Amino acid sequence: MQFEVCVESLEGAMAAYRGGATRLELCSSLIEGGLTPSAGLIREVKRHCPLPVHVMVRPRSGDFLHTPHELEVMLSDIEFCHFAEVDGLVFGVLDSQGEVDLQAMGKLMQAAKRLPVTFHRAFDVCRTPVRALEQLIELGVKRLLTSGQQPTAFEGRQLIAALVRQARDRLVVLAGSGVNPQNVIPLLQATQVREVHFSARSGAASHPVHVQERLKFGVSEEHWVTSEEKVRAVVKTVLG
């Protein structure tokens, strides 16, 4: 089993490691679905955490239809990821019809070179998932992160199971979204996936400092942290 934990800080990376994660998806702004992390964060996580680090390459929140300028940014981020010696990349681009953008993905895959690529949950808004899976395999994508086009992976377990059967050993299907100790075993049994993805997040209040009541610098008075205990609970449920 592989337990991939999505983290957005060095503290989160170390908490995931202590909790039993086997791989990290490193990003920023989990509240927006995950964006490209900073160069400093990538370097420090690689420096301090022994787990494989797969970096999210996503220049903005919202849809997955990226402009030529955004693709240039993504290519530059991939170039830096090679320099930082990350272990994998996570990205996905769709066209205006809700299909995989083969031209854009081809450019990004070429830039990725030796690094294994995970196509992220842009897949969950693809118009034709069966066709999209075959296209991703043809492109050389190694892993697909999906909730089965439902809000949670458990709700999407039927499609995930079908994708696992379709992919066979040509691509790894990674089930993610809403994975927790209560549903992880039924999810594994229903889908036969061997990799799960989860964030194990808990809310943490902002540090007690002087506050200017009229000014806000985020969408919430709290921030998300990775819970070592929540990671450990999922891992322990599966491995005993």
UniProtKB/TrEMBL annotation:
Record has Coiled coil as a keyword: no
Q: Which domain of life is it from?
A: Bacteria
The UniProt entry, under InterPro entries, shows: CutC-like, CutC-like_dom_sf
Question: Keywords, A to Z?
Answer: Cytoplasm
User: Cellular component terms, GO, for this chain's entry?
Assistant: cytoplasm
The main location class comes to cytoplasm
Keyword Cell division attached: no
GO terms of molecular function = copper ion binding
Q: Where in the cell is it found?
A: Cytoplasm
Q: Which family does it belong to?
A: Belongs to the CutC family.
* Name of the molecule in the record: PF03932 family protein CutC
Q: What is the lineage of its organism?
A: Bacteria, Thermotogati, Deinococcota, Deinococci, Deinococcales
